[in-house]
Amino acid sequence: MSNSLIEITAIEIKELAVIEPKQASEKFELIAKTMSDEQLAEVIENIDIVTLTQINGQHDISFPSIISELMTPERIRDIVCQQPLYWEEAIKNNADELQQHTFDFLNYLIRTQDSEAKQREILECIAEDPAGLFYLAIPFIEFYRGDRYEDDEGYRDVLHAEEEDLEESLRYSERQQAEGTHDYSLDDPRSLLMLIREQAPEVEKAIKSLLRNEHSSWDGIINKFAAELVMQAKEKNKVEEDEYGDVDDMFSFLD
Length: 255
Description:
By secondary structure, the protein is mainly alpha-helical. The chain has helices spanning 3-19, 21-31, 37-45, 49-58, 66-70, 73-82, 89-92, 95-111, 116-128, 130-137, 141-144, 161-176, 189-199, 201-212, 218-237, and strands at residues 147-151, 154-158. It has two domains: 1-71; 73-148 and 167-241, no CATH class. It is built from 15 helices and two strands.
């Protein structure tokens, strides 16, 4: 396929995304039947990150996506960092919904990949960006935010029972040499956290360190992380503050 046809295809997808991102996602799936993976990857490279974010945000994340499979780790990182500007009201105003949404989106982007190597590259790439690490941490706050108490030996953390269960399940899965043998379903955040530990242990350590260094309440942590994500997304887009003024009021549930 010539470069001109690749550019035309990318323009068609972008124009459709302006009207209806979900239809753009469906259109890309149809186009994929007529192109090679290499050609589709070129089309993706010709689509801006805002459009890619909108398309992936509207895709039914319960099903694999060809576009997410073919995106580079860098593109996926940029989408993760961009997505907070498109959180819906139901997500913006409810801490539990925000935690669930970030987990679902990460689960969709990571598990749709066809190799462990690609999963690892994506996780490491996301974690290298400060905003990306905040995003990665949100689904796991309840596992790693532990309470602190002081004894004769100084300050110590008390791990939540969930984390202790996670440690035991991880040891079990390691003995079985397969992630699929643990007791957690794929829609359980602990399953994704175990995948991160197995595929990218340094990323898991970074998540754990980030959360353990926060000493406020659960709501306080998610408030800080969410606000930081939005601020950094604005900075990355180099937009004027008043253009996204409505974003500043998105976290009323944390006031």
